[in-house]
Amino acid sequence: MATLTLSARYARLSIALHWLMLVLLAAVYACIELRGQFPRDSAERDLMKNLHFMLGLSVFALVWLRLAVRVVRATPPILPRPPAWQTGLAHLMHLMLYLLMIGMPLAGWLILSAAGKPIPFYGLELPALIGKDPDLAKFIKGWHERVGTWGYWLIGLHALAGLYHHAIRRDNTLQRMLPYT
Prior knowledge:
Number of strands: 2
CATH architecture: Up-down Bundle
Mean pLDDT: 95
Strand order of the largest sheet: 1-2
Helix content: 55-70%
CATH topology: Fumarate Reductase Cytochrome B subunit
Distance between the termini: 10 Å
Radius of gyration: 19 Å
Number of helices: 4
Order of helices and strands: HHHEEH
């Protein structure tokens, strides 16, 4: 495939945010998975939970910047153009990923708020969004965990779709988002 011109690629900021958020999401998931490797009430387990919270809230902050860039900058076309059904599925996937990146950190913030726990953010303590309500915290936590599992599938399908477009369809879908070409 030929080298793409700058206008045929996403803006540099969009590309940087895409890959940064991938790393952040991987770290968010890694922290919560690694948490189970440490005994309850240990410093290491608390560190994993706090990193999970802070990295998740970092995703929440950056997703708004990413959405702003997406609104301001045009999306480069996929060439050759995919069938309408694929474009529709791609839009649905992006919507679900954005909802994940907004909803999951917000749910985590609500869980900590309802549990009456501090909301750590790189040396700061964020304000509670709601009052203490342990039953509500437990309810939101159940959904947070369930949707978190769905997130693995969404991210995996998104990656597979990019590879499908690159290796099988041989269009420029993946190249538009690569940091180099």
